[in-house]
Design brief:
By secondary structure, the chain is mostly helical. 69% of the residues lie in helices and 0% in strands. The chain is elongated and about 45 Å long. The two termini are 30 Å apart. The model has no long low-confidence stretch (mean pLDDT 93). Keywords: Toxin-antitoxin system.
Length: 88
């Protein structure tokens, strides 16, 4: 996809945060950080109120269920299975 060059201004605090994100190794430069933030916002704007309510309900249910003895991989496996079966 073609890129368009933009010039933006940020606060000193925001600049420090952007630089900290790059230091973590998750991003190679400032443009990557900003593009990721834009992608996340675009995704969030596409979420419906029903989807947001469902996510909140799942988080509350998870908090109320307490701790689990299952491994992270077992939990992910179940989540993938549920997702696959509800979106098939």
């Amino acid at each position: 996809m073609p890129m368009v060059k933009k010039s933006i201004s940020v606060t000193t605090q925001q600049d420090s945060w952007i630089k900290a994100q790059i230091k973590t190794g998750h991003f190679g430069n400032e443009s990557e950080v900003i593009r990721e933030l834009i992608r996340e916002r675009q995704i969030r704007e596409q979420e419906t109120p029903e989807e947001i309510a469902a996510i909140r309900a799942a988080l509350i249910k998870g908090e109320q269920s307490g701790f689990s003895n299952r491994s992270v991989e077992e939990i992910w496996e179940e989540a993938r299975f549920r997702h696959k079966n509800t979106h098939a």
